[in-house]
Amino acid sequence: MLSSLIKLSGKKLLLPLYHAVSDVDLKHIKNLYSIRNTKQFVQDIEFILKYFHPIDVETLLDSIENKKEITKNSVLFTFDDGLKEAHEIIAPILKQKGVSAVFFVNSDFVDNKNMFYRFKASLLVEKIKSLKLNENTILEISAKFIEKPKTENEICRFILQIEYHNKFLLDEIAKMLNFSFDEFIEDNQPYLTTAQIRYLIDQGFYVGAHSIDHPEYIKIPYDEQLKQTLESIHWIKSNFKQKHNLFAFPFTDYRISGKFFNTIYASEKPLVDLSFGCAGLKDELYPKHLQRLPIEKSKQLAKQIIRNEYLAYIGKKLIGKNAIKRS
Questions:
Q1: What is the model's pTM?
Q2: Each residue of 183-231: pLDDT tens digit?
Q3: Sign of the CA dihedral with 238 first, then 242, 244, and 247 last
Q4: CB 275 within 8 A of CB 263
Q5: Residue 41: exposure state from Cβ atoms within 10 A (0-12, 13-18, ≥19)
């Protein structure tokens, strides 16, 4: 059935998106989204390789720049956030399967210098779940929010809703709970190190930028969007001498303006060679901006997620809703 759907859709390129693979709970991720264990990840790869031929960045870029049609169903795996599992678990499996991939990293988090604010939120929720908060602590934390949460569950929900612009609240709440993010980072080393990234590159994998510190682009000004993009790309190029400037939007590329893409893809001297969103199978205005399919969005098998995505694309194509519009 999937072969027929691929043919009917005309979408021969699949770009799966993952973050981590682990056989143990990752407390910094646990309260945000589900990840694959090793067995599930291998099953995903084996299923995908039944229908798609693995390609690398060079092949993909060549097909776009030289307007060469991709004749085979093709797949390039991508992984966001630069987590250590890329080195410890994911890369060895990909290597064994003969599969290429791109790992996108945040420049502020490499070498465990700092941590994504959403990971901090997940850790605080885990801490609260392990405690019985007294009334004074509940009131103290509640005072940090405009709407006053009254229970532990409400506090956890509010913490998970904290955004980039008020991420400082996470550090303040951590102090109230006597929890140290620095100690967690030191003890767990959740991110890739510079040495590990160089090892991945030596193994034939690609590394791209994922912004400086993972803001949601729609909620920051245009100038800050450019700064986050270009400085993180420059950091990658300076430290790892990557041939191509690759960039994946943190969170999503939803409602990113045409002005932004016109700037980074300026005809005379493009600042980015390829960029990636995560809207699933969609048609894009910009040939070098590609949409990926998030596999961790549900606990379904890759078989179901990919089949449903192709069905959705075909349905939307029939009513003219399969293309992304940019203002």
A1: 0.97
A2: 999 999 999 999 999 999 999 999 999 999 999 999 999 999 999 999 9
A3: negative
A4: no
A5: buried
Residue given tokens 């850790």 in the structure block: 123
What is the chain's length? 327
Cα gap 205→19, rounded to integer Å? 16
Amino acid occupying residue 190: P
What tokens appear for 25 in the block?
A: 């709970």
What is the Cα–Cα distance from 188 to 318, expressed in whole angstroms?
Answer: 49
* Cα(147)–Cα(155) distance, integer angstroms: 10
Q: Residue for token digits 């790892």?
A: 240
DSSP secondary structure letters along 295-312: STTSSS-HHHHHHHHHHH
DSSP E strands, 148-273: 206-209, 246-248
Q: At what angle do helices 117-129 and 181-188 cross, to 10 degrees?
A: 100
Q: Are 306 and 281 in contact (CB under 8 A)?
A: no
